[in-house]
Amino acid sequence: MPKIKSNSGARKRFKKTAGGKIRRRHAYKSHLLAHKARKRKRNLRKAGLIDPSDRKNVERLIPYK
């Protein structure tokens, strides 16, 4: 059976952790940063985890990651 292609957009956005969870970046950190609070921007730097309800869909996009 042939390999499944990974979705190249998802491959760049998501990474699997050692425990099997999927990490993601936060939104709202790319522009219009002048009016956002320093604390908010600092917290947006940290990676988040995807919601468990989205896990099945994201794992289908990145089967070998």
Strand order of the largest sheet: 1-2-3
> Could you report the average pLDDT, rounded to the nearest whole number?
95
Order of helices and strands: HEEHEH
Largest sheet: 3 strands, antiparallel
CATH architecture descriptor text: Irregular
Named CATH topology:
Factor Xa Inhibitor
Give the N-to-C terminal Cα separation: 19 Å
Number of strands: 3
Strand content: 5-15%
Number of helices: 3
Q: What gyration radius follows from the Cα positions, in whole Å?
A: 15 Å
According to CATH, what is the class?
A: Few Secondary Structures
- Percent of residues in helices comes to 25-40%
* Total number of domains: 1
Query: Runs with pLDDT <50, length 5+?
Result: none
State the secondary-structure class. Answer: alpha+beta
Written description of the protein model:
- The protein has a single domain (8-61), classed as Factor Xa Inhibitor (Irregular), CATH 4.10.410.60.
- It is α+β, with helices and mostly antiparallel strands and 65 residues long.
- Strands 1-2-3 form a three-stranded antiparallel β-sheet.
- The chain is 32% helix and 11% strand.
- A hairpin with a 5-residue loop joins strand 1 (15-16) and strand 2 (22-24).
